[in-house]
Metallophosphatase
Amino acid sequence: MLVAQISDIHARPALSSLQTLERAIGWLRTFRPDALVVTGDLVDDGWRQGYRLVAESLRSLDCPVHLLPGNGDDLQLMRSELAAVDPWISATGPMHFRAAIDGLTLFGVDVTVAGQSYGDVLPHLPWLMSALADVTAPALLFMHQPPFRIGIEVLDQVGCRNSTALLSTLKAMDRLPLAILCGHVHRPAFGRLGSIPVQTCGSLAPPNPLLLEGRADLPVIDAPSFLVHEVSDVRLVSHVVSIPTSDRSA
Ligand SMILES: [Fe+2]
């Protein structure tokens, strides 16, 4: 089972990330994953045409596509332009999803908070508990803001709040998810929430600098990237696929 994850496209008229999206989707069309999850921040500044272009690109894939919003998304535009891409996009309320593919369950929890850059999982724990209640198969849990400390202060200020309550909720379930898979950070990063692996997907927009423990603000040399998760029973291996771009200034 191959689940691709792309994140943080941040499409804007002046950015090259739509071209990066096209390159990623072109690669995925040939690769043929069993599903694609987009973990938020599709378009910046409420650019309606951007949502249309992202939808057109995603519709060219021959697999189910599931979407979460990020803090940068305009939820109304996302609903109106992308409803045909993901049947789980709701007319109102949080954009959670739950999908089963050949014995693997994919959960998406919309932890965005209107008008804020941080996320908060607490209001959505009742939904998560009911969605997970009857799941006995392996599961992957997707969110936009990650529920762990990245170590980059500016990003940790806008992470997902109430991660301890999330861990308590998950531990009360019969089976822990194989991993929690997020976006928002614009870098691939790997950590844990309790014993659950947490990973952030690289961005299709330019990556963020690695501002760790007061180290110098070095120029970013990372390429945009995305993840391919291979799941076989309870085995999960996640692969980083990078997309070198000739236009690093965009
Ligand atoms: Fe974000």
About this structure: The domain at 2-242 is CATH 3.60.21.10 (Purple Acid Phosphatase; chain A, domain 2). Residues 40-41, 70-72, 144, 184 surround fe (ii) ion (CB under 6 Å). The chain is about 20% helix and 25% strand.
